[in-house]
Amino acid sequence: MISKAPAQTGFTAVELLITLFVAALFLFAGYQLYNVILSSGTTARNQTLAGSVANNYIQQYADSIEAPCNAYSPILDEPITVEGLSETTASVTFSCPVSDANNLSQISVTITYGVGAETTSLTRVAFFGASS
Questions:
Q1: C-alpha to C-alpha distance for 92 and 70, rounded to whole angstroms
Q2: DSSP E strands: which ranges in the chain?
Q3: For residue 69, is it within any domain?
């Protein structure tokens, strides 16, 4: 009588290596996705902070518009402190976008933040009609 060998149970070394390789690929892809999400969230947060500061400057300087339109810059690259942003500067510029309209003024606020190659600028522009 011929006896059969018992059925093999468990995993072979090749099956285990393939499983570990596929799991490592999924972990690496998950780590890359996590980094992209973290970077995008940080960028969005920084842009929101800078936009809020720029809008505050626009509201602050909107009352100082004069007629006729007068182009000048009350603030140029002034260092400011914004919690959450590093090395932040602000510039506020008044200009006359249309030469024929003496009562139309443009306020441009630029917030620059970051260090070295990571420096980012955000500009907000608003138009106001000055009262004569």
A1: 13
A2: 72-80, 88-95, 104-113, 120-129
A3: yes
User: pTM of this prediction?
Assistant: 0.71
Other C-beta atoms lying within 10 Å of the C-beta of residue 2:
3
Instruction: Report yes or no on 79 lying in a domain.
Output: yes
- Would you say residue 2 lies in a domain? no
pLDDT of residue 101: 64
33 part of a folded domain: yes
Q: What is the pLDDT of residues 5-55, one digit of tens each?
A: 666 777 788 999 999 999 999 999 999 999 999 988 988 999 999 999 999
Number of domains composing the chain: 1
115-130 average pLDDT score: 87
**How far is it, in rounded angstroms, from Cα 36 to Cα 53?**
26
Q: Look up the domain containing 125 and give its range.
A: 13-129
First vs last C-alpha separation in the chain: 115
pLDDT at residue 129 in the model: 79
Q: For residues 116 and 19, what is the distance between their CA atoms, to the nearest angstrom?
A: 44
pLDDT above 70: residue 93: yes
Half-sphere exposure (Cβ direction) of 116: Cα atoms closer than 13 Å? 1
The full length of the chain comes to: 132
